[in-house]
Amino acid sequence: MNKLQAGLALCLVIFAVESQAALFDDTEARKKILEVEAKLLANHERQASEIENLIKRGSIQSEGLLEMQNQIESLRQEIAELRGALEVANHALATTERRQKDLYADTDARIRKLEEAKTSINASVDEDVNEVPAIAAQAEADVFKAFKTAYNLSQEGKHKEAFDAFDAFIIQYPDSKYTPDAIYGLGYSQFALKNYTSSIASQQKLLAVYPNSAKAPNAMYSIANSQIQLGQIDNAKKVLRSLIAKFPTSVVTPNAKSRLKVLESIK
Predict the structure, then answer these.
(1) Which DSSP string do the residues of 72-96 spell out, in sequence order?
(2) What is the per-residue pLDDT for 140?
(3) 43 or 211: which leads in pLDDT
(4) Contact by Cβ (8 Å): 188, 180
(5) For 120-144, how does the pLDDT look when each residue is reduced to its tens digit (9 = 90+)?
(6) Average pLDDT in the 59-64 region?
(7) How far is CA 171 from CA 96, 186, 197, 209, 210, in A?
(8) How far apart are the first and last CA of the chain?
């Protein structure tokens, strides 16, 4: 019996030890599982947070891209409008240049006729000393009346009508003593009508055909003003300096000096 009791006791001890060992192994396993689950949960939460941040950043970037696209579209519309305006401006400029060229060609042709007529008259004139004074006086009065009409139109600011009147006078009375003034008036009317290139041509013709005319300094001053309007500042300076040197006592010389001083102050 003692041996049996001792064997049973030994078996109980072994069973208890094995049970405690099994219990210990199960606790450790659960602990490991909980640690793994905790890590997985932490990783999941971290990934969820990162995904949320990415979504937020993606939303912000999407909004930024949308705003950039709107700005790009707005710029495209502005560029299209500017291109349209540029095309209109180019067309208007081309039309103006073409009209100025046509007007210049027409004026040049008429002044050439004036030069040819003047040469022909000078070559063929045979003054009749017995001409009736009354007829000569009436003819001179008609010439003066025609010139005065054109001049008055210019003074009244009717520059288109003045241009036509001066042009008609030059054609009808190419050798009149008022012809230099009429050519100057023609150029002045062209300047007032903003046909600056044609105005320069008319005044240059006056200086070429009538270099000693009383209107010569006025013509040079008008040329400089037209060149300023065309942006030809250096040419305008040269003309003004020449005017001041050639006609120091002219009534337009003080104005020429003032204008030159302003131009020279521009850098």
Answers:
(1) HHHHHHHHHHHHHHHHHHHHHHHHH
(2) 83
(3) 211
(4) no
(5) 545 544 454 445 466 667 778 889 9
(6) 61
(7) 26, 12, 21, 15, 16
(8) 133
pTM: 0.51
For 248, phi then psi, to 5°, come to: -65, -25
Q: For residues 24 and 27, give the distance between their C-alpha atoms in angstroms, rounded to a whole number.
A: 5
Q: Is the pLDDT of residue 146 over 80?
A: yes
Over residues 85-107, the mean pLDDT reads 58
Q: How far apart are CA 215 and CA 183, in angstroms?
A: 9
Calpha distance 71→164 (Å, rounded): 55
Query: Are 198 and 104 in contact, with CB atoms under 8 Å apart?
Result: yes
Residues 6+ apart with CB under 8 A from 198: 100, 103, 104, 107, 187, 190
d(CA 229, CA 142): 37
